[in-house]
Give the backbone structure.
Amino acid sequence: MTTNAYLQLGLYFAVLFALSWPLGVYMARVYQGNIPLFMRWLRPLESGLCKLSGVSEDDRMSWKRYALALLLFNLLGLLVVYTLQRLQGILPLNPDGLVGVAPDSAFNTAISFASNTNWQGYGGETTMSYLTQMLGLTVQNFLSAATGMAVLIALVRGFVSKEAGDLGNFWVDMLRSVLYILLPLSLVLAIVLVSQGVVQSVSAHHTVALVEQADVQQSIAVGPAASQIAIKQLGTNGGGFFNVNSAHPLENPTPLTNFLEMLAILLIPSALCVTFGVLVGDRRQGVVILSSMTILLVVLLAGCVWAEQSGNPLFERLGLDTQASELQAGGNMEGKETRFGIVNSALWATATTAASNGSVNSMHDSYTPLGGLVPMWLMQLGEVVFGGVGSGLYGMLVFALVAVFVAGLMIGRTPEYLGKKIEAFEMKMAAVAILTPPLMVLLGTALAVTLEAGRAGIANPGAHGFSEVLYAFSSAGNNNGSAFAGLSANTPFYNTLLGFAMLFARYWVIIPVLAIAGSLAAKKTIQPGAGTLPTHTLLFVLLLAGTVIVVGALTFLPALALGPVVEHLQM
C-alpha cells in the first residue's frame, strides 16, 4: 500500500460520510411530508400525480394492503419490461435494427430489473434497443430502487407507530422517493457524467477507421448511456449500458467519473442510516447501524486489496521468479484497467457487492481466489453491509432484531428494540427473511453443478468453475447482479433458474419485513428498563456486526471451502 492508495481510500470515505449526513436529514424530511423549501416547487406535481392516480396521502395501509400494492405494481413493471424486449424489433427508437430478445433472456432480464438485481446475461449495446433501455430498464431502475426505500420507511413506521397498526401509503412513499430523491440526484450526476465524456445520444452506432489501419472500420456503440448510468449507481441497480460495464471508456472515461460513480453506489444506503436515526428520534441508532456496516466493509476491503496486491503465487511455483517481479510489480492486474489500478478496482468491487449494485470497473473473475472471495462473501452476508437503497438497511434491521433477541435470552429479559417487544412472530419472520436468500444460493448452486445443463455453462472445470457458479447464484440470490464472467449464463437453464432465484430472494424478504413492520406498528411503545440492552453503544455495534458474520459464516463457509479456498490452496 502506497501513501497515494491510503489517500484515495481516505478521501472516498471522508466525502461519502460528509455527504451522507445532510442527505440523510433531507430524506427524513421528505418522508415526514415536510418538504424543504428549495424542493417545494415540486409539490404541485406530486399532488397532481396523486389525484390523477386516485391516491390520497390520508389513505393509510395495513401491512397486507401495502404488500399487495407493492407486488401488483412490481408485477406490472416486470410485464412491461418483458413485452418491450420481445417487441423491440417492431418498436421505434431502434436505429441499429435490433431484433426481439429470446423468451428466456427476456424473462430473466424482466425479473432482474423489477427486483433491483440488474443481472445481465447479454451485451446491452448489442441486444437492447434505445426504447428498451430508456422506457424499460432505466424506468425500472428508478421504480425498483423506490420500492426498496418505501419498504424501509414502512418498517421504520412500525417502530415509531403507537398502536396505529398502519404503515402509511405505498404509492406516496414510492412517489416521494422518485420525485424528491432519485430524480434530482440522478439529473445532477448525469449532467456531470456527460461533461466528462459519457455518451448520451439516440443516434445509431458510429463507424470509424482505425488510427493505424485506415482501411479497417470499427463500430463504436453510443446511446442514452449517462441517464441510465446515473440511476443505476444511485439506485444501487448495477448492470450497465455497455457489456463491459463501467470498465468501458464511454461509460466511465475519467478518474472523476470513476470516483463519482463509486461514491454514488454507497451514498443513499449510507445516508438512509442517518434518515433512520432522525425518524426514530435518536440519531445515535442510525450511527450504530452505519458504524457496523462500515467496520464490515473496511475489514473486507482491506482483505481484497491485500489479496490483489499480493499477486499470483503460481508465477513463483513455475520458476518465473524474475519475470514474476516484473509482471507483478503492482500486484495482480489481470482483468483491471491500468487507469484505475488495484486500489480503485478493489474498492469498486467491495462497494458494489456490499451494496446491492453489481456494476463493475474490473472483471471479478480475474481476481485472485481470496480477492474474489471477498465480493462473493459480501453478497452472501445478505447484502446488508450498506446494501441496496432501502433493502440493505431493512435487512440490517432484521439482523438487529436477531441480535437483541439473542441478547435478551442471555440476560433473561423480553427482547426490546426501539421501545418495541420482539416476540415469536417477529423472530419467525426474521428467520424467513434471513434464510430465503441463502436457500436460493445454495439450492441453485447444487442444481447447477449436478445437472448437465448447468455444467455445460462452466468453461473452467474444477474449483474455479464451482466458484463461478456459486458467485452467480450468490449474486442472483442476494439481488446484486455482478458476475464471474467465465460462466456462460445466457442459456435457458441459467436464465430460468437465476430468474426464480432473483424473484424469491427479493419478495420473500420484502413480505416478511412488511409483516414485522405491521406487527410492531400494532404494539405499545414501552419505556426502557434496567434490563434493556442499550442499542446505541459500541457494544451493540460489535454485537450486530458479529451477528451478521456468524450467520454468513455458518451458512456459506462449507461452500466457500469448495471454491475459492480450495483454489487458493491449489495455487
Observations:
- The mean pLDDT is 92.
- The chain has one domain: 1-207+219-571.
